[in-house]
Amino acid sequence: MFSLALRNLLRQKSRTVITVLAISSGVIALILTGGFVQDIFTQLGEASIHSRSGHLQLFRQGFYEAGSRSPEKYLIDNPDTLSRKIQSHPEVADVLARIQFAGLLNNGRTDWPIVGEGVEPDKEARLGSYLKITAGRQLKNTDGLGILLGEGVAQSLKLKPGDHVTLVANAAEGALNSLDFEVVGVFQSFSKDFDARAVRIALPAAQELLFTPKVNALVVSLHNTRDTDAMAALLKQQLGKSGYEVKTWVELNDFYEKTVKLYQQQFGVLQFIILVMVLLSVANNINMSVFERLGEFGTMMALGNRSNYVFRLILMESCLLGLVSALLGVIMGVGLAAAISAIGIPMPPPPNANLGYTGHITIIPAVLIMAYGVGVAATVLGALLPAVRVSKTPVLDALRANV
Does 403 score more than 70 pLDDT? Predict the structure, then answer.
């Protein structure tokens, strides 16, 4: 049967080629779309991690829910000791201390409400590879009273590197304190909302401003993003009983989960549409091919072949067609994905973001298997109805098709 099915396909070259192209095109579309969507997930995740959040963040219990209103109530007492303990894990690349505060920034003419962070500048520069400096330079450890402004803050107060500003904030005890700073740079992150209010100063200056040696958060940077969940579970186990909570970058960036769900739903719809298109195209081609050969099948049944043999022969031809076409589609899809990725796809900034990026087509084994399976399944399913109709056609009616 295999040999006969193969000869039948080779005998009908034009229809076979048309069907192969239809199936391969569907498989290629699935590979390119799936790879593009996965690249969006990867780049969005890495932008979130290396723009601000890091892979993990460690807080005092309750800070994540209520700390933005009263950060002084959720301070970590021994940040250096805790940092060394976390840093001892081989998966950890860096541990960064941060302290958050709210205040007013004054340029000598007007005040602007800001959300500030006291950071370790050199470590932040290593983490923030997606943070773009649009004017001036990055904040350094040696900048005792230097300040880095979000692009929105700089535009609102008409500030540039070299200008001087006064920062007023509530200290940990509730008293007001102020310090004068020199603008060293303006940054652009992945989020417009963050840039509209954010300023960064060196951690010692923030601790002096707030009258505290403590910090609000420890940001953990890992060597590999794939270690995030395992490291989060380990830190929760080790530090959870001591009154600390650990949040992953996914939990810290809820828009990422929403974006992933949105794209997954869209990709699911696209998969269904492509499946239907391939199914209809294959069904049409096979239906025409089969009924053109109705007399041939009638002759086979008249010579003693049972109707179920004819049914299985048609399915065998379709299965061979699907296997070869889907394989060809996978090979072509991988080649196109590599070529497109080498060139890159210029993408505009996502909603509520400042930075555009270059898209690629990620080659994912799971997507390749899925696309191959869809191609084969669509071909076999498309042949079912024609095969049933032919196998149930009376022999005399089938023989008359030769006349």
Answer: no
